[in-house]
């Protein structure tokens, strides 16, 4: 532990708390990518009969996990923000450690910069088969010469593809670098 932290009588390095919350965020992000990507791959490699089942599973997963999943990710993000600010204040102004803490906190919070773009995609997947989109599906189906079921399936699968693209870049650009910043603050002492 650095002498600065010892002088301030911190019993442990304060960066451990945002490290734990960003670790949880990154772990969740990686798990979601693996799980949801495997569903999407199953829809591409199986027959049409299974593709429809996979699309329904994706829509059901999103509609059922959205409230609790949102609560978890907001809790982790808020924890990273609050503990990140606390970590920033623990290091002397102008020090490298303080700048790394600032970067880690901004990166962890940056996860939510992707929310406006991705929220509509998630909503489209979660409610692809719900009654709210019946009229839209009827019009889309008539224009494309497809059934409503096929239109709902395409919306769910295309939404999942888009979510995976955005999620991949969000994880790569915000979650993993934030984890690296707080990891450096804890383990480079």
TrEMBL record:
Keywords: Membrane, Transmembrane, Transmembrane helix. The chain crosses the membrane at residues 15-36, 57-78, 98-115, 168-187. It comes from the Eukaryota. This is Uncharacterized protein. The lineage of its organism: Eukaryota, Fungi, Dikarya, Ascomycota, Pezizomycotina.
């Amino acid at each position: 532990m650095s002498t600065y932290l010892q002088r301030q009588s911190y019993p442990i390095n304060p960066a451990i708390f945002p490290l734990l919350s960003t670790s949880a965020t990154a772990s969740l992000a990686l798990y979601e990518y693996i799980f949801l990507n495997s569903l999407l791959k199953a829809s591409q490699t199986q027959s049409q009969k299974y593709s429809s089942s996979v699309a329904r599973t994706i829509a059901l997963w999103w509609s059922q996990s959205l409230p609790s999943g949102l609560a978890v990710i907001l809790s982790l993000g808020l924890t990273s923000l609050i503990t990140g600010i606390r970590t920033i204040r623990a290091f002397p102004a102008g020090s490298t450690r303080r700048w790394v803490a600032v970067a880690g906190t901004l990166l962890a919070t940056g996860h939510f910069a992707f929310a406006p773009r991705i929220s509509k995609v998630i909503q489209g997947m979660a409610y692809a088969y719900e009654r709210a989109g019946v009229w839209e599906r009827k019009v889309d189906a008539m224009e494309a010469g497809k059934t409503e079921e096929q239109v709902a399936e395409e919306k769910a699968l295309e939404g999942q593809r888009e979510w995976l693209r955005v999620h991949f870049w969000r994880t790569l650009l915000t979650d993993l670098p934030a984890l690296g910043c707080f990891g450096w603050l804890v383990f480079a002492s």
